[in-house]
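QA checklist item 7 of 12: single-chain prediction sanity check.
[x] sequence parsed
[x] length recorded as 185
[x] structure emitted
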Amino acid sequence: MKRTLVLVLAMWMIAAVASANGGGHGGPPPSGFDDRGGDHGGGPGGEPLIVGTDGTVYITRGITDSATNTTTTTVSAITPAGATAWTVTLPSGRGPLLLSGSNLLTVRETEASDGSETSTITAIATSNGATAWTLNLNGDVTGLRPFSGGTYATVVVPPATSTASPTRSLVAISNSGTILWTVTL
């Protein structure tokens, strides 16, 4: 009887701790772009909610056309008062959004018939939803990390032959979309 009571009490305490912690998955955040912390999967499109310093929330939505089986993705800016400030349609095949300075960044990769890859970074101005700038980089952007003067991008260029190694570099991009410097890793 005493053992049963101790076991029930221990299970109740574990359940209380799990409930108090929100039942989260624990551990490190997912790799790649979605490493900003916060509410993973909180947006309607399954992406984390992105909140600007002024309290504006940027939400993505994916709408699938059942007739053509194509998905259109939009991003909307919701003000702290709950009003929609703007909504824009994003290019298909784009990656998750990242807030960097006064822009939302997204990356779209394309592969040419020769196997070479190009990544296009598009900056959407948080003030009005307009495209602030675009930048094409040779290779696959595998990560973005904002800093006070812009964004760092990790870029991997696949090898030209099966015996060669991929080339990795770190690219510093200004808030206006110009390359500040590149370092081969």
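[x] summary fact logged: The domain at 33-184 is CATH 2.40.128.630 (Lipocalin).
[ ] second reviewer sign-off
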